[in-house]
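Reading group handout, session on sequence-to-structure problems. Before we discuss, look at one worked example. The prompt was deliberately terse, the way you'd type it at a terminal:

> structure Acyl-CoA thioesterase

The input record follows.
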Amino acid sequence: MKYYGTYRLVKNEDLNHHGTLFAGRMSEWFVESCFITVANEYKHPENLVCLKIHEVSFKKPIRKGEIIKVESKIIYAGKTSVTVYGRVTRSGSDEVIVEGFLTFVCVDENGVKMPHNLTIDNPSTKEDIELLNKVKNFRK
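And the output record:
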């Protein structure tokens, strides 16, 4: 599965009392990026709801004026759920500074789970195999 990405400029209103990016704002951007990924693949965003945020790690501070890239891709597709891996890097760098997973569920107009009929390819890269193994571990 391919990565979808967005860029963000960290501004004054995004900062916490330490002068770094507020975790709540980063979480908002992270969830939004992961949602966009699933919505682009599923094509019916009105049927998607976020079920769970898994193992999000903030590894380094992000400062005002920095441009960050928020990328995400689908790692696992069950019958009604989809799990997405997200990562954040500084523009121009490959160092991952935030990463984690989100699970979305497909629901009908009454909020009842329904099949999404998405299929994803078997993992073919070392990264995808490792990410799928992480998903399998926290789904136990």
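Points for discussion. First: The two ends are 23 Å apart (CA to CA). Second: Strands lie at 4-9, 48-58, 67-77, 81-90, 96-106.
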